[in-house]
Amino acid sequence: MGAALGTGCNVLEDLGTNPYEAHYFWLNSVVSVPVPSAPIAEPEVQQTLMRRHAERVKLHTDGGWDILGESEFNTSNSASNRQLLKQGRAVGAELVVHSREFDRREQEWVQRREYEPGERFTVNGTTIERPGKWVERHEPVTRKYYNYRATFLRRRGE
Questions:
Q1: Residue at 127 is within a domain
Q2: Is residue 64 left, alpha or beta, with left meaning phi > 0 and alpha meaning psi from -120 to 50?
Q3: Is residue 125, in this structure, part of any structural domain at all?
Q4: Distance between CA atoms of 56 and 45, rounded to whole angstroms?
Q5: Residue 48: how many CB atoms within 10 A of its CB?
């Protein structure tokens, strides 16, 4: 069952919007850096704290890396590593500096429609069957929001 769930999640990721792609922006300073025509290997991903993100990127740019672009967004949906790697390959990145930071928690009431199955019971030898019905349910849902930031880099001159 675990394998089926894992496969299902991948299928759902493919059907949904990739937040790293949707919120990606090219940086003007590296417009001249061409995307390689041949497929590249998966980029290396370096996780860092949000407050150290710019510092980590600067270490790389000072060390011979060009910034291709960045992606920043806030969401309560999990952004997967697979989506991050997909965007990295799409822009030709060899390295991705990635940060995630908790932002806030929000609760809201959500209305759901559920099917309540019918009942069957016997009283004094007589069986009665009640039909099922659709009912409205209200329940609290807690959403945790996170800030995401990814900087896509490639070695200078490649």
A1: no
A2: left
A3: no
A4: 12
A5: 17
Domain hosting residue 51, numbered range: 19-109+142-155
User: Angle CA(151)–CA(79)–CA(103) in degrees, nearest 5?
Assistant: 85
Neighbours of 70 (CB within 10 A): 19
Residue count of the chain, please give it.
158
Number of compact structural domains in the chain: 1
Tokens at 48, concatenated: 């860092």
Nearest of 39, 8, 44 to residue 154 by alpha carbon: 44
- Asked if residue 138 lies in contact with residue 111, where contact means CB atoms within 8 angstroms, the answer is yes
pTM for the full model? 0.70
Reading the chain (158 residues) residue by residue, the pLDDT tens digits are: 333 333 334 444 455 788 888 888 887 555 455 555 565 688 999 999 999 999 999 999 999 999 999 999 999 988 889 999 999 999 999 999 999 999 999 999 999 999 999 999 888 888 889 999 999 999 999 999 999 999 999 998 75
Residue 135 in domain = no
Domain membership of residue 98 (yes or no) is yes
Q: Which residues pair with 97 in a beta bridge?
A: 46, 151
